[in-house]
Amino acid sequence: MSARLEVAGAGAQRVPALSFAGVDFAYPGCAVRAVVGVDLALHAGEMTALVGRNGSGKSTLARLCNGLLLPTAGDVSIGGVPTSDETRLWEVRSRVGLLFQDPVQQIVGATVEEDVAFGLENLGVPREEMLERVDAILGELGLVDIRDRPVHGLSGGQRQRLALAGVLVLEPSVLVVDEPTSLLDASTARDLLTLVRGWAGRGAAVLWITQDPDEAMAADRLAVLEQGRLAYQGSPAEFFLGGEAGRLSLRLPRPAELARELARTRGLEWVGHGPLPLTEPALMQLLRSGLDGRR
Asked: pLDDT digit string (tens) for 80-117?
């Protein structure tokens, strides 16, 4: 664990790693606010999933996290430092790592190794330390064998892992990922989710933005945006089992949908709110025990 992450974890008892306090945002010339009255706190060592339909304000919220956008009302803070404080903007951005949907926008080096080292070179990190950190992150993300490969020849999954490597090598205390799996196949997407989930385990605060309820189930907490407003904060399982997903027109995780469909083929229906299986292991356990009696 890096020193930066250790400090973030220790301070999380008092100050959130990332906080939104009464945040509004409206794009210039637009009368409709993209974000409305958002109060949200993320803590070190915690992964929060942010879900919502297209146009709900998820990507706007991501860009508010490190000062790419500034709130029109309220405050966004990183470890207690407001993103609106121009004198500390470099400090804010050094603490926050952003990974977007299209990795091409974030890749700047000619080769894999050059791209990962780019941010460290800009920060003036000593060469010996830079090489150690680059080697470590290339190994962790499975990029060692292609470190000398030109970036234009990489697959979509390799490009997304490279973009993530370029973010993680900077050791951010807050990691914001905006729908990073939408262009990936299922296997590569699961691998990426596991990698990011592991970063929370090291002490980072992670905001995982997605439209996929199965990915949301991997998070510690769930936040749901509806027309720019936070419509739910709490347990992912409680959200999907308590009827909130249906109210907001969001689908259930695939294991729950499959269990319902299997029950219908047997002339059965689920009672009330559950207990629907929300993960693959829960579905397999249900199938082993049988669906009988769930009328």
From this structure: 999 999 999 888 988 999 998 888 888 999 999 999 99
Checking if the pLDDT of 175 tops 50, the result is: yes
- Decide: 193 and 182 in contact? Cβ < 8 Å: no
Residue 36 clears pLDDT 80, i.e. is over it? yes
Instruction: Please say whether the beta carbons of 35 and 24 come within 8 A.
Output: yes
Residue by residue, DSSP assigns 114-174 as HHHHHHHHHTT--HHHHHHHHHHHHHHTT-GGGTTSBGGG--HHHHHHHHHHHHHTT--SE
Q: How far apart are CA 176 and CA 173, in angstroms?
A: 10
pLDDT of residue 243: 82
- What tokens does 290 get? 């049988």
Strand partners, 186: none
For residues 45 and 244, the model is more confident at 45
Tell me which residue of 87, 86, 49, 42 sits closest to 65, measured CA to CA: 42
Both tokens of 63, joined, read 């860009």
Question: What tens digit of pLDDT does each residue of 139-162 get?
Answer: 999 999 999 999 999 998 899 999
**Rounded-to-integer distance, Cα 114 and Cα 111, Å:** 5
β-pairing, 174-178 vs 81-82, is: unpaired
**Quick one: the chain helix, strand, coil %, rounded to 5?**
45, 20, 40
Is residue 259 within 8 Å of residue 268, measured between CB atoms?
Answer: no
Contact assessment for residue 196 and residue 215, using Cβ atoms and an 8 Å cutoff: no
